[in-house]
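Moderator note: this is an archived Q&A kept for reference. The question asked for a predicted structure of one protein chain; the sequence and the answer are reproduced below.
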Amino acid sequence: MKINQNTVLQGQRVTLVPYTSAHVPRYHEWMQSEELQRLTASEPLSLEQEYEMQRSWRDDADKCTFIVLDMERWSGQACADEDCMVGDVNLFLTNAEDPTLGEIEIMIAEPSYRGRGFGKEATLMMMSYGVKNLGITKFEAKIGQENEPSICMFKKLHFKEVAVNSVFQEVTLRLDVSDQERQWLLEQTNHVEEKSYVELKLPAGVLET
């Protein structure tokens, strides 16, 4: 999705940046992990396929993704994006009958960053971005039944379990963004600053692809 190709969202623990080709090698490394393949229901891709996937994430109107960075390590350009990557957060707008429904995914790929609030903050930031910029009024999360930490996190974010698929061993959770939920969400993310990726990281104001 091109709407966020120059968007940086800075929170307390995490910074969200657009997924560029510079992030692909590290992402490809992550996805060699059998554990992550299982948790994300993903098939391993070749490096070239991963680059093609990154281009589709950038260009397709029904996908929005950010790479999750460690805010403390990244701020002040202390290290390159790829050295601060901890995961990614995605929104799929694939329901043609309801363009206000977004399916959200969060992956904290680096084990040392799990259980420390990085996934929660990144998810809240993406939800707020979806509500404010993409017209989302309801969210769904589809999570493997064995991924108890992720299910618990979404329930803490007011999602309710609405379906269980025993064939795919998957739980579907849902949140309808009422006025009250919208207010809560915006309060949870009122510390987030939106900045220009070009101005922060890239020389000569040229957008990387």
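Archived answer notes: The two ends are 12 Å apart (CA to CA).
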